[in-house]
Amino acid sequence: MTDPIADYLTRLRNAIKASHRIVEIPASNIKKEITKVLHDKGYIQNYKFEENGPQGTIKIALKYNPTTKQNAIVSLKRVSTPGLRKYAKHNELPRVINGLGIAVVSTSKGVMTDKEARTEGIGGEVLCYVY
Q: 111 near 33, Cβ under 8 Å?
């Protein structure tokens, strides 16, 4: 597999389209950090890291509106790919839907949102957009 983050986002996208409650994804450190950011910002309901096999799995409980059955995540878009990396300085970090969404950024201080990176004053690789 050449792009595990794109695979992660695609598995989430497919589970949302199929209205699944739980999705299982092969684990890696960067995927765990992205999952923590999505949980902290309220895009997923819960997650659990399971250590089985050589790399383990991440179980993610997706978040739906109880009345409209609408998912909290409308769109997931990969920005930086292995073939074309996208880096941004702290003052050039993108604003997703004028601040309503988040851009997940991999910085020297770990994976965080674009807003957190702006306040820390550090730039990094823009991994994906979530809204």
A: yes
Neighbour-count burial for 12-50, b at 16+ CB within 10 Å, e otherwise = beebbeeeeeebebbbeeebebbbbbbbebebbeebeee
SS (H, E, C) 69-117: CCECCCCEEECCCCCCCCEECHHHCCCHHHHCCEEEEEECCEEEEHHHH
pLDDT digits over 106-131, tens only?
Answer: 999 999 999 999 999 999 999 999 99
- How many Cα atoms within 13 Å fall on the side-chain side of residue 1? 8
What are 87-103's pLDDT values in tens digits? 999 999 999 999 999 99
Q: How far is Cα 123 from Cα 112, in angstroms, rounded to an integer?
A: 10
Beta-carbon contacts of 29 under 8 Å, excluding residues fewer than 6 positions away, are none
| Both tokens assigned to 128 | 């994906």
Q: What is the DSSP string of 31-66?
A: HHHHHHHHHHTTSEEEEEEE--TTT-EEEEEE-B-T
